Please model this.
Amino acid sequence: MSSIKFLKEDKEIVTAMGANLRTKAVQNGIDIYTWKGKLTNCGGYGQCGTCIVEIVSGMENLSPKTDFEKRRLKKKPDNYRLACQTLVNGAISVNTKP
Model:
């Protein structure tokens, strides 16, 4: 089992290994999009880059960055990920809308 702690929302979710971070956030009522992202997001298909989250702890428990993430996040800190491209394989802590 994996756990995802959303720090700003003070909510922790227990999920299966390999769960998609964006999917679990949406299923549990966690708002990961800014105002602009709410209008322009691609629905989790990895095409828009609006579901950016900051991984506070547990980077080692995530899938490797995809090529799209590497391109889209090249000017962002290393601990930023796109939730739709991130699979969770252990305990992590996340800040939404960094």
